[in-house]
Amino acid sequence: MSLKILVVDDEKDMLALLSRYISEDTAYQVQTENNPMEALAVFKQERFDLVIMDLKMPKMGGLDLLRQIKKIRPDTSAIIMTAYATIETAVEAIQEGAYDYITKPFRRERILLTIDKALQWRRMIFENMSLREELVQKDATRPLIGSSNAIKSVIQEIKQVAPTTATVLITGPSGTGKELAARAIHQFSLRKAFPMITVNCTAISENVIESELFGHVKGAFTGAWKDKKGLVEEADGSTLFLDEIGDLNLSMQTKLLRLLQEGEYKPVGSTRTRHADIRFVAATNHDLETDIKNGMFREDLFYRLNVICLHMPGLDRRPEDIPLLAQHFIKKYALLYQKDITQISESALKHLKAYSFSGNVRELENLIERGVIFCRTTALEPEDIFPGAGVPADIPSSEMSRDILEMPFREAKEAALALFYNQYIKNALTHSSGNISRAAEKAGIQRQYLHRLIKETGLDAEGFKFSS
Ligand SMILES: Nc1ncnc2c1ncn2[C@@H]1O[C@H](COP(=O)(O)OP(=O)(O)OP(=O)(O)O)[C@@H](O)[C@H]1O
């Protein structure tokens, strides 16, 4: 089936010209529209692979049209045409999701080349998306990687406890695989036919967590215009994974205790008690016993959760797992980024083993992903893994690495951003001694946003506690 292109411009001559170029020189199907509103209506009805649009049009400008199109089908490729070659326009168009922009007047070969590239990009996005889905699926069922005695005994314990209905509390520093362990417990359990429901207790704000968990009835509060099912109801018959349980406030802890003890809960605004048959798995990187002493965590809830405790050790306790994990992530990201990388050099491994991973396996995974993006050969070298600032990569570089500057634009942007996040956050946490609220205030961003960034970067704020 040939690919379809929609061209939108208020100048009819331009439409005729582009239509002629495309139909004479390519096998793509082309359709034209001189009214952006009508173009949008057509786009809603039909699937197009690429939309080429003029920037300045009456009724609706090209950037607005682009935004609407990306909202409807984000994987559509787009090219903006403009008579004004300003860098701001180009940046804005690219930020809104356009593949490229082209200035009028353009040569026939130039526009045809841009069209080909935009369509190739779309195909690549498509392939990457299905690859990503495949990888996510595999991640969900894949056992924990590692050959150390520590990880072997965790796997053994998981296999033993999984088929029971016992509540499991998974402890350990950030990025050690607690969520992966929870998935494995569910996967080896008798409930695996149903999806495991995950609640991230940090990510949900305090005022919505109750209704997220227990649901609400119509009229319970302003905006509750119909009944809403909570995650507890969705987890009925399956496993409920309470991630970062140490972040739950005391009043929610009390409600959760009731659910754990009696299997009972009440949706917000309801007087009727409901029942749910749930297997609970919880995880935390807090020291809950200290939290109990400080009055931050209910002791009775702790004992309810801690029927079976699985501890995920930090990477510093099992450095012998680093080579196997590194190899595993190389395979994963080489496949994702379609690169022919199969190995890691002895020297790179030596540096990794000597590196202090405050973010544990997640940080190792991020470093390898970055390495795969940078690598130009078939084996990862230390400079690929720690680009920009030499090895190890803790010293901020004042100049952007040559490697980045020589990459294709999109890869370079991704690599530079990853480097920026990592170094900015490390610096902020070092100065705040690991205090996230203070670091966020100084950076002028919300605490929750910084928390998310820290997690995505694979760092662990705890590791910065005594750093300054
Ligand atoms: N043993 C392992 N084998 C393979 N991948 C792992 C392993 N441990 C962790 N990972 C990977 O590291 C990343 C972090 O793991 P996960 O989210 O399970 O950690 P966590 O302990 O729950 O972190 P946090 O406390 O920050 O929520 C994930 O991408 C996961 O797939």
TrEMBL record:
It comes from Desulfotignum phosphitoxidans DSM 13687. The keyword Transcription applies. It comes from the Bacteria. The modification 4-aspartylphosphate is found at residue 54. This is Sigma-54 interaction domain-containing protein. InterPro entries: AAA+_ATPase, AAA_lid_NorR, CheY-like_superfamily, Homeodomain-like_sf, HTH_Fis, P-loop_NTPase, Sig_transdc_resp-reg_receiver, Sigma_54_int. GO terms for molecular function: ATP binding; sequence-specific DNA binding. Keywords: ATP-binding, Nucleotide-binding, Phosphoprotein, Transcription, Transcription regulation, Two-component regulatory system. Residues 144-373 form the Sigma-54 factor interaction domain.
